[in-house]
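#structure-requests
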Amino acid sequence: MNRPQLILAPGKERSLLRRHPWLFSGAVRRIVGTPQEGDLVDICDAQGQWLAAGHYQQESIICKILSFGTPQIDEDFFRMRIRSAVDYRRRLGFFEMPDTDVFRLVHAEGDGMPGLVADWYNGVLVLQAHSEGMHRLFPLLSRLFVEILSEYHIVSVFDKSSATLKVEAADGFIWGEEQPEQEICEHGNRMLINFFEGQKTGFFIDQRENRHLVHTLARDRRVLNCFGYTGGFSLGALSGGAQYVETVDISKKAIELCNRNVELNFSADNRHRGVVADVLNYLNTIDNTFDFIILDPPAFAKNHRSLQQGLKGYRSINQRAMEKIRPGGLLMTFSCSQAVSKDDFQTMVFTAAANAHKQVRIVRQLPHALDHPVSIYHPEGEYLKGLLLEVE
């Protein structure tokens, strides 16, 4: 095996000895060979002792580490990792849920495969690469997934990496039947997923249990679902007996699909209205109209350089929602920005409450769902922060 090597500066091996799956460029003293973006490389300490192997990147995270235990990274290595991820979901019963057929199958670092997300949509597997190294492996990975998932009736594999790679890539089916739109079911609610046009891998799977919580709390409430996308939270509220639901999103296509999803489940039901609007502007137009507001915005802070500006955006929408909600109402609020820590998020909510002059109770912390495991060695993987609040 004659791979390029990243030789660390003295003392810079500590994070790898703690099995953290990211190596930062500042830890590297010199590079042996000429690795290209996505190449497999070995990482050695200052004395030349092998420590780990992973995919090389020309950025601040210079290597996403695949293995601390063996330099041998081959077909059997990935077969083992995929089977481990599938078995984890099988043990938790995800393949046998009677009213849900969509879940995450591989969660990057949480499943020992940094740079790879794989989501299951009722027989369609959507792969998304967050590194060039993983994307190069898609022919192999697709074949292994088809092999391992054969008993679960896999029908297609879709590559949705165009928005997550630095190099140009085209979304499209790489195996099986081509079906750009698929119907799925989540907690009994039917939804249409467009793989070409949808965000993330087509849907925000990580919010599944929080959408079900909305279902349990929404009875007889007037619900405002902000940044509502294609209406997952809205369907939860409607199926839970909400009196009225509005879904607000700046994307016309998202609202159109949201309305189709509502019609699919609640035909001729006039309890829902979809609104194409900027959320902050729309919050200015309401006043004690809703007693349940959901704020699930996109990542306002994409990285640490934009953290303060992102926190300002989160604070603005939360303060406005607290000012406009009916007294005693519920506010469910989230940040999906990895750069925003739990402490950052809670401090932001505290500041918004103080600025709004509201008494606020924290009812519950809201993490992502069980199919998004977090490696104990990679706490950054816990990217979704959420709070259920009561605003007096």
